[in-house]
Structures are given as structure tokens and as C-alpha cells.
Amino acid sequence: MDISGKKVWIVGLGKSGRSLLDTARRLGARCQAADTRLLVDADALRGRYPEVDFHFGPFREGQFAGADAVLVSPGLAWDMPALRQAREHGVPVLGDMELFGQLARAPIVAITGSNGKSTVTTLVGEMAGAAGWRVAVGGNLGTPALELLPSNGPEPELYVLELSSFQLAACTQFHPRAAAILNFSPDHLDWHGDYAAYRAAKARIFQAMGAGDTLVLNAGDAAVMALAPTVPAGVQIVTFAGPAAALAAPAAGSVIERDGYFWRLGEGGGERLMAVADLHLIGAHNRENAMAALALGSAVGIPAAAMAQALAAFAGLPHRMSRVGRIAGVDYYDDSKGTNLGATLKAIAGLPGPLVLILGGDAKGADLSPLRAACAGQRAAVLLGKDAPMLADVLAGVLPLQQVGSMEEAVRAAAAMARPGDQVLLSPACASLDMFTDYQDRGRQFQQAVRGLAGGAG
Question: Cα–Cα distances in Å, from 226 out to 153, 230, 251, 351, 424?
Fold first, then answer.
């Protein structure tokens, strides 16, 4: 899209919205910017961009209808009246990923799903780096995608992007060379409206793919595999699956776990890639993440030796099943990034137990009743945050419960209920913003409280 000299609105001024603003200005657009919030750094923004007309507060009827284009930050409701009116007036309305896809010249690997996105995105980036490729990693993880584009110098040889359902909901022509849908579990239902709309947003990752592109699907997730008949003709579908998944006829290029190794299927039975025992990541879900990364790396031609090297060296992401330490015979694990039901169910399954769980926050409208079965037989649960009362109702009679008001209280309560040989697991199944800045802040406070226990144990 040529927006040089055009009147362009930037809507939403969070991290990604500001990358949209910087990109539009670099492309020569005449920018106006709006956010429904009165930002604390509004004056600093005006000082940094004196030529930009900023508007803070509720959007007016028809506010964007006279623009040449509207660029929308992820997370803003796509059907809000002001944006709908702009589209009705024929104004192009694009999200950050749609604009990125138009500007990028190197192949794109895109990863989505309810859980594991950050791990798989990071792994593929590490694999490409181990092969000596110039690679840029970001999107919903870390650096906004538009900031990965070169302002000068050579373009990366590969972009590896984590994509949220918010970003994908705004995509129509976004075209990755290889993409993956890792899994589905209910999440962000307060934003999408229902589970079907959430899955439909995720499925937009492949809608513009075509011949020569590869889509990686989780053969062990029935909801993911149900998308296969809707994939455009010519897209190669490959799968990944652990020993328990039933695969009738996996395509060449698919990755499986068999006899203690990861294999890439092909002629003559395929290629043995690496021993599962060489993987440092904990849990069956991380073996799935490794297989997804291997399938994606293979799809874009990363050498097998580089992929195995990166996997063997990777110790995991912060706040994702990260072992904090052992105190009085009890191991403490930080899985603060477990912000939805699916992530927490996988985290529980990945540890031997008995577990003392720390749960709670903002459930985002999700049904957390499957936690009843997962928590049966565990030691206890400590509940905090906005939806602690709802969780107390869900888990009543299943295991001992205690509601608390802070992370420090939660850790102390968990330590009091745990016995030697147990694990204390922070995997909240909920978002963090009701009590914390973000999931990283929640995880840091957990780790600090655990270190406080260690300091007081001497």
C-alpha cells in the first residue's frame, strides 16, 4: 500500500500502535493518531511527534471516514462503530500484520495457537540463527513486527513471528511461507464473543497461503485438524504428533516422536533428527513444541544439524515452566505465562506431583471447570485475583483451598500446605492484569516471594 502523502489515522497507541505510527511516518504518510485512553505520556508523544495530530478519548461518529487509510493496533475491537463506518466509506482498514506482510520481502514463518507460541517462535529463531541465517524474531512476542523491518542495511533472510488472535482477526492477505497452528483451548472469549470466533480468527493465518507454502498442524488436537479441509488448495499440510496421537497417513515432512527420537517422515521411513532425551524442556507439551519447531524449520530449509543444536541448547523461556528452586524439599515452578486453561492443564500434566497450585486472576470469560479433574488428587490450591471466588466454586470439594490477597501470601500459604517431595506450581489459568502489570510482573513477584522463603529458612 502506497501511503506516501496520504491522510492516515493510527488507531490505538500501545506498543504495536506506536510501531504503526513510526512506520507510517517513515513511508511519508500525513498522520493523525487516536486512542480512547488519555495516556500518561500524552504530552511526551506530542513532543516527540509535533507534526502528528493526536486525539485522546472516545472516538467520534465518522471520525475516520475521511481518511485515505486507517491502521489499527491489535486488541481494538474490529467492529467498533468508528472503524465500521470507515470501511463503509471505502477506507482501507489494516492491522499491523497486514501492513507488515505488504512491506516484508523475506519469507515469513508465522506461529499461532492457544499455548506454546512463544516457545516455538523462539525455537525456530534459534534454529535459523544456529544455521547462520540473518533472522528477525518478534510479533506478539517481544519486538513488534514492523520494528523488525530494516530502516537501512540488508533485510533479514527470515522473519519468525508469533501471532495472537487479535492480530489475525485483522488479516485478509497476510501470507507466510510456513505457518503453524499449535493447539486450541478457550481464550480471550471476552473479546471474540465465543470460542468459534476465536478459532476462526486463528484460522486466518493460512487463508492467503498457496502453492509452495507449508501449514503445520497438531495431529493430536482434533479442533486443529478439523481445519484441514478448509486449507487453500496447493498448501502442503504437515503434522506433528507424540506417540499417543493416531496418525493414519502423515504427509512427508511431518514430525513424530518414536522410540525415544524425533523423526521427520519421508522416503525410506524418514530422518532421525535428535534424541528426545537431549531436550532440556520439561513436559509432553514441550516435546510437542519441539516437534512443531522442527516441522517449521524443515519447511523453510533449515539444516537438521542446526535445528538439533538449537533444541539441545534451549533451556526455556522465562515464566514458562521455569524451576525457581527447592526449599525444604519442595520444588517451586514459575509458569506465570499459563494465562489460560489449556496452558495450565498442560503444566499440571507435565509435573509428577503432588502439586500445590497457585491459580487465579482474570479468566477472560472462560469455563475453568475442566480444572476439577486435573486437580483431583493434588495436594492443595491457593487462589487469588478477580476470579478467585469463581475458582473456589469450581474446585469446591476437590482439594483443600485457600484464598489470599497477594502473591507473597500465596507463596507462603503454598509453602505451608506443601510436603517434602511436592511441587508448588504457579500456573494461574488466568490473565494477570487484574493485579499485576503483566504476566512477567506476576512471575517476578512469585520468584521474589520464593526467594523470601529461602531467606527466612536459614
Answer: 43, 8, 16, 29, 36
**69 contacts 6 by C-beta, under 8 angstroms:** yes
- What does the block give as the cell for 7? 491522510
Q: State how far the Cα of 356 lies from the Cα of 375, in Å rounded to an integer.
A: 9
Query: Domains of the chain: which residue ranges?
Result: 7-95, 104-313, 322-456
Q: What are the b/e assignments for 29-56, b being 16+ CB within 10 Å?
A: bbbbbbbeeeeeeeeebeeebeebebee
The domain defined by 322-456 carries CATH number 3.40.50.300: no
Indicate yes or no: pTM above 0.85. yes
Architecture of the domain made up of 104-313: 3-Layer(aba) Sandwich (3.40)
Which residues form the catalytic set? 117, 140, 188
Helix, strand, or coil here: 353?
A: coil
Where is pLDDT greater, at 457 or 81? Answer: 81
**What average pLDDT does this structure show over 376-387?**
97
Contacts with 46 (C-beta within 8 Å, 6 or more apart), sequence order: 52, 54
Read off the pLDDT of residues 28-39 as tens digits, 9 standing for 90 and up: 999 999 999 888
Q: Are 362 and 386 in contact (CB under 8 A)?
A: yes
| pLDDT at residue number 417 | 98
Kind of pairing between the strands at 255-258 and 261-264:
antiparallel
CATH 3.80.30.20 fits 7-95, yes or no: no
How confident is the model over 414-424, as pLDDT tens digits? 999 999 999 99
From CA 109, how far away is CA 137, in angstroms rounded?
Answer: 10
**pLDDT at residue 189 greater than cutoff 80:** no
pLDDT tens-digit series, residues 291-322: 999 999 999 999 999 999 999 999 888 899 99
Helices of type H across 283-380: 284-299, 304-313, 341-349, 371-375
The arrangement of strands across the sheet holding 330-334 comes to 322-327, 330-334, 423-426, 355-359, 380-383, 401-403
